Amino acid sequence: MQASSPITNKFNTMKIKIFLPLACLLSIMLATQSLQAQYARFIESGVVTFEKRVNMYAKIQSRYGKSRSSFMEQALEQYKRTQPQFKSFNYNLAFDGSRTRFWPLNDQTTPSGGFFGDDPSIDMGNTIVTDLLAGQSIGQKSVYEQTYLITD
Length: 152
What we know:
This protein is of the alpha+beta class and 152 residues long. The chain is 36% helix and 30% strand. The protein has two domains: 1-32; 46-151, no CATH class.
């Protein structure tokens, strides 16, 4: 009978130490793979309500920062004393398989903000309806008390 060498024994022991954990890991991966993603569900319709917050101090400073006159400095300081830093706007997005509708909520209780607060770039207040099947979008946009319907 031939005796096995210490190198062969060490090699066989090393093979077992590597093979056994790999075999266990592979078995676990195969078992759990069939359990994942079998019940993938896609939301086909719903309503999402979200909030947009605008940092008014930063918006005003970026807009009027380069041409700061003493009047603008006073107006900005007055605004900071009387108005909150962030202005919040709430919107809804409703969707189904063929259409989407985006509109602002009418419960906008944020004060106008005086001199700086009525800027249309801060809150557009647009209502947009999109027909996904036809590839058409209709937007109702209000700009300085005028309302326009825009079709795209």
